[in-house]
Structures are given as C-alpha cells and as structure tokens.
Design brief:
- This protein is of the alpha/beta class.
- Among the domains are: 136 residues, 3-Layer(bba) Sandwich (FAD/NAD(P)-binding domain), CATH 3.50.50.60; 49 residues, no CATH class.
- Helix content is 30%, strand content 23%.
- The protein is built from 17 helices and 21 strands.
- The strands form 4 sheets. Strands 5, 6, 12, 13, 14, 15, 16, 19 and 20 form a 9-stranded antiparallel sheet that branches.
- A hairpin with a 4-residue loop joins strand 9 and strand 10.
- Helix 1 packs parallel to helix 17 and helix 12 crosses helix 13.
- The protein is globular and about 65 Å long.
- Bound molecules: flavin-adenine dinucleotide.
- Flavin-adenine dinucleotide binds next to helix 1, strand 8, helix 9 and helix 17.
- The site of flavin-adenine dinucleotide has 38 residues, from helix 1, strand 8, helix 9 and helix 17.
C-alpha cells in the first residue's frame, strides 16, 4: 500500500523490515520478502512521477561522469524507470581474484552466486528454456560461428517489463504486507550498540520522525548509500558502528563504453544471422562478444565485452516508435500523435520488413544500409583514490551533505581495450566474417582515446564486500561490518565490475539475502 503522509505509518512497529529506497533492488527485495510472509516498509524519497536528484546534492570532480547527473532516478521504481532491463551474468574469473588485478578477489565464490541465477531469472519472468545461451541460439537457428583464440559469442537477456514500479505496481498498491512511504528521505540512524533500532526520516516540509524496525536494508543507490554512511560516521561519531571504516566511498568504478572500430562485413548473411537481436516469446536476446576466462588469464587483461552497433538514417525514428509502443502498452498513455505519424512516415518503407523480421524470423530488423561498428564495455582496475566523499559545508534541504565523486581511470584500460579489438579483428578475418578498422588513437595506444569513452551508468563501489572491516564495508552476506542488522544491496557492494551490466548480479545477491533472511 502506498502512503505519502508521515502520520499514516506506524512509527514504533519494531517487527518489520525497513528498506531504504524503493528503486530497482528495493522493490525487488520488498516483493521477495512479502512473498515469504514478511512485513515490509519501503521508504522512498521520490514520488510516483519521474524525478531527478537536485544538482545541489552532488558534484563530479574527476573524469566527467554523466551517470551521477542523468544515470539515476529519484522516484518509485528508481533507475528501473530509465534502464533497458538488460540482464548480464558475471564470469567465474570476475570473482576469483586475478594476480594482475590487485584487490580483485571477492569473499564469495562464483559458484555460490551462480547457484541463485536460476531462481533470480525465474523471479524476473525469464523462463527455464531461455536461461541457457546454447538453447536460445539453437531455437533461433544460429550456428556456432566457430570463433577461435578465446573469443566467444554469448547472450544478454532483456526484461519484458523493465520498470519495477510497473512490474510490481498492483502488489505495491494492494499488499497489506508491503507498505511504501513516498516522498520521505532517510537522513540518519538510531543506534544502540551494534544494533540499528531505527532510521530518521524527513518529509518535504521538514517534519522528522524515527521509524523503528528489526532489520534495515540500504537500497538507495551507490551515491546515496555512501552519502548516508559517511554522513552518519561524521555526524554521530560516538555512536556509529562504522565510524572508523576507511573503505566507505572508496574503490568507485563504472564501465567505460564507446566505439572502437568500424566493421567491414565480408559475409553479410552470416554476420547478420550471428549478431542481430533474437526475439523469443516477446523477450529479446542480444548476441555479444567476450573472452573466455582462460584467454583473460593468459593475456592478463581487464574483462570487457564487445557489441555491434547498427546505425541507419532511420535509427532514431525506429527508437521513437519502440518507445511509443512501450509507453502505450505499459502506462496505457498515448501522447504526441503528431510525432508518431512523423516517425512512421520517415520509416514507412521499413515497416513491413520490420514486422516480418519480428513476427516470422524472430529477429530485430536492421536496415541493410546500416553502418556497423564495434563498441566495447570495459572493466576498470580497483583504485582506492577513485572515490565518493562528502562535503559537510554544503548541505541540501534534508541536511545531508553534498556528494563529491572523483572518478578515475587507470593505466590498464587502454592496453586491454586495444588487445580485445585486435583479437576480434583477427578472429573475424580468420572466419571470413568481417574486418575491423580500429580507431587510430587506440591502435597507437594514445591516452586521448580514453576521453572518447564514457561511463555506462553502472556505479560500482563505495560499500564494497570485504574479508574484514579493514578491507571492506559489508561482509560476504552484505551486512555492514560492526552492525547486527544493517544490510546494503546493489553494485556499491561489488569489488570488481567484470564486463557485465551490474543489475542482474545485484539482484542475484538480493535473492540470496532474502533466502537467508527468510530462513
Ligand atoms: C539509461 C540507463 C540504462 C541502464 N541499463 C542497464 C541495463 O540494461 N542493465 C543493467 O544491469 N543496468 C542498467 N543500468 C543501471 C541500472 O539501472 C542501475 O544500476 C540499477 O537500476 C540501480 O538499482 P538500485 O536499486 O541500486 O538504485 P535505484 O534504482 O536508483 O534506486 C534507489 C532508490 O533510492 C531512493 N533514495 C535515494 N536516497 C534515499 C534516501 N536517503 N531515502 C529514501 N530513498 C532514497 C531513490 O530515490 C531511488 O528511487 C542502466 C541505467 C541507466 C540510467
């Protein structure tokens, strides 16, 4: 049930689980807990309509980081209102610790995490028959491209309903177990020894109240998690169990993404059969390229993946039509009929092949005149100086200090990206599929190349998982070191980012935590 007034919520109920943040992970966690019979209160600072974070609440002083400004949303459903819903799995090597990548070993193993993949897929509506790449490739008639040299083709899966506010909309409105308080921000903690007894919340008019609970889960996004933890450590210094933890805010990473080469296709039919997006039962699967664990170990490089970008004169019109259709289906809103007809007119020639491709061939249509390029998404090294801090001199209306992001790149990204591009070129040419024309600056190993790459809204770190409080902020079960009942969920707890978009793994950790809580 949704509430907007502070006095509609029973503040002193200390039996329930309190989730801070009603975004992607917060709503998934609430749904999973309610399903297991738990009583939940979600506290969300945004409203039902789409909202942003006020620019006075943050600053970026390192490499330009777009995501802090446009890559997150303050609203019910959080950033799931903006994302594409692409689910990507981490590889075993990402968790194992790589001697060429200091600090990369996680306190959990890949096998422990992967044992929750199936349950997470099913919770998200991805059926068993679509969880295995080989089975989807077979269903779509994609034969093994026979890549050598450690390069492999793999699939990412796209959620049919990306917004958690839409996916769980009915439950949020009707469930007695799951209460959601909107337009209220958590600004601090009530602590007794190692136990969190409550969170202090503020409404938009400045009224304040302590909300009690038995367990508290921070699901408020990477920047806001660091902000809350750092603020409490400095503001409530005597009481705060994590006041001496030097890891809070550190080891920030994002994925670097951008174009690395144009692609000259040598075998058109095979190329498009290999790389055009597959559609099965209304669900999209995108073929991408990555290096097998063994090849990464041999080359001693960062993990990264490659994807094909298809650009045509009608790309923008097709994106508009897709967004229009999604809005019409999920929010049942039809706006801008003028724009609809303008975009339909611009690509009318392609509409029939588009529908045929989708319905009959189960593929996403790519106009034959499209220019093709290879884009990469690269991991970053683990760097303590790439970090989130707070400036207590500048505070917003809630009294919370400004967040300062100092995002850094290291010396490993450029050679790793260059090696990856060279390898894709060699493998493509050997298989007669295509030839790459790699960007000159990348071939030369020119540092300037990195400035053409941007962040991909995958904010990692700040509350990383550690072997001890000297090494991290949360333990392998996501509990904040020094506390009995405060947990953090999200990519802020990751030690490394691999090549994979972060949310599927973050959701998998939530599935695991919910099982632990329920038992
Ligand atoms: C355009 C775009 C595309 C993306 N595509 C993908 C993709 O395809 N695959 C993928 O894996 N990832 C993708 N991402 C990243 C992904 O969306 C995010 O990493 C993920 O949604 C973060 O989930 P979260 O629950 O941690 O944070 P959010 O979803 O941002 O939720 C945090 C919530 O906490 C609330 N909050 C903050 N502070 C407080 C407070 N003090 N008190 C109460 N509430 C608070 C916020 O208002 C927000 O609603 C994309 C991101 C963007 C912007």
């Amino acid at each position: 049930m949704i509430f907007r007034e502070i006095n509609q919520v029973e503040a002193s109920n200390s039996d329930r689980i309190v989730i801070v943040g009603g975004g992607t992970l917060g709503l998934y966690a609430a749904h999973e807990l309610a399903r297991r019979g738990k009583e939940i209160l979600v506290i969300e600072s945004g409203a039902e309509s789409l909202g942003n974070f006020d620019p006075v609440t943050y600053d970026s002083i390192g490499k330009t980081h777009e995501g802090i400004r446009i890559g997150r949303s303050k609203s019910l459903g959080g950033t799931s209102n903006l994302w594409g819903g692409q689910l990507v799995e981490f590889q075993p090597v990402d968790f194992q610790g790589r001697d060429w990548l200091p600090d990369s070993k996680w306190p959990v193993t890949y096998e422990e995490v992967a044992s929750y993949h199936q349950q997470t897929y099913e919770n998200l509506g991805v059926g068993k028959e679509f969880q295995d790449d080989a089975s989807v490739f077979k269903q779509a008639g994609v034969s093994d491209p026979g890549f050598r040299n450690g390069l492999e083709l793999f699939l990412t899966r796209w959620l049919k309903i990306p917004s958690m506010a839409v996916a769980y909309g009915e439950e949020i409105r009707s469930s007695e177990r799951m209460k959601v308080l909107l337009e209220h921000s958590v600004v601090g903690f009530e602590v007794s020894g190692a136990t969190i007894t409550g969170v202090r919340i503020l409404d938009s008019k400045g009224a304040s109240l302590v909300i009690k609970g038995s367990m508290f889960i921070l699901a408020c996004g990477t920047f806001e998690i660091s902000r809350l933890l750092l603020h409490s450590a400095s503001n409530q210094a005597e009481l705060c169990p994590w006041k001496d933890n030097q890891n809070i805010g550190r080891y920030f990473q994002d994925h670097l993404i951008g174009r690395v080469a144009s692609v000259e296709i040598l075998d058109r039919k095979r190329f498009f059969n290999t790389f055009s997006t597959i559609v099965r039962a209304g669900q999209k699967f995108q073929p991408k390229l990555r290096l097998r664990d063994e090849a990464l170990r041999n080359e001693r490089i960062l993990n990264l993946y490659g994807m094909m970008a298809f650009e045509s004169s009608v790309s923008e019109n097709l994106v508009y039509l897709k967004q229009f259709l999604k809005a019409a289906i999920f929010s049942r809103k039809i706006n801008g009929l003028g724009d609809l007809f303008r975009n339909l007119f611009a690509c009318w020639k392609h509409l029939l092949p588009l529908m045929w491709k989708y319905v009959v061939a189960n593929r996403v249509f790519v106009p034959s005149t499209s220019k093709v390029s290879l884009h990469i998404q690269s991991e970053q090294p683990v760097m303590s100086e790439s970090r989130i801090t707070i400036n207590p001199e500048v505070r917003d209306a809630t009294g919370l200090p400004k967040v300062i992001l100092d995002w850094r790149t290291g010396s490993e990204e450029l050679p790793s990206i260059r090696e990856f591009a060279k390898r894709v070129d060699a493998v493509f040419q050997a298989s007669g599929l295509a030839r790459l024309h790699i960007e000159d600056a990348l071939t030369r190993g020119d540092e300037q190349f990195l400035s053409t790459l941007r962040d991909n809204y995958h904010q990692v770190g700040g509350a990383r998982m550690g072997f001890s409080a000297q090494d991290g902020v949360v333990d392998k079960n996501l509990k904040v070191f020094g506390t009995e009942n405060l947990y953090v969920v999200g990519a802020s707890t990751f030690r490394t980012s691999g090549n994979a978009n972060t949310t599927f793994t973050a959701l998998t950790f939530v599935t695991r935590l919910m099982d632990q809580i329920a038992s």
